[in-house]
Amino acid sequence: MSDPMAEIKASFFIECDELLESLQDGLQLMDEGEADSETVNVVFRAVHSIKGGAGAFGLDDLVKFAHRFETAMDDVRSDKLEATHDVLKLFFQCGDILADLVREARENEPHDPSRTAQVLTEIDSLLGSSAEDEDEEEVEFQPMTLSLDLPGIDADPIPASEPSYTIVFEPENELYSLGNEPLFLLRALRELGDMHVTCETKSLPDLDQLSAEIGTMIWTIQLTTSEGEAAIKEVFDFVDGICRLEITENSPAMASLLPDLDLAPDLAPELPPLPMPAAAENPSVETPFVAPEKSSPPSPPATDAKPAQATPSQDTKPAPKASGAATAPRATVRVDLHRIDRLVNLVGEIVINQAMLTQSVEEAGLPPNSTVRTGLEEFLQLTRDIQESVMMIRAQPVKSLFQRMGRIVRESSADIGKDVRLKTEGENTEVDKTVIERLADPLTHMIRNAVDHGLESNAEREASGKSAAGNVHLTAMHRSGRVVIEVSDDGAGINREKVHQIAVEKGLVPPELQLTDTEIDNLLFLPGFSTAKEVSNLSGRGVGMDVVRSAIQALGGRISITSERGKGTTFSISLPLTLAVLDGMIISVAKETLVVPLNSILETLTLTPSDLLEFGPETHVVNIRNTFVPLLDLGAELGYREPLSDYSGTVVLLIMQEDGSRAAVVVDAIEDQRQVVIKGLQDSYGRVPGIAAATILGDGKIALILDPVDLITQSSGRTRPMSNLEKIAG
Amino acid sequence: MTDTSKTPDIHKDGDEIELLSFLVGGQDYSVDIMSVREIRGGAQATSLPHSPSYVRGVINLRGAVLPIIDLAKRLGMQEEQKNDRNVIIVVAVGERTVGLMVDAVSDILSISQEDMQPPPEMRADQNRNFVSALTIVNDRMIRVLDLNAVMPETNEEAA
Question: Which residues of B touch A593 (CB under 8 A)?
Answer without folding.
Answer: 46
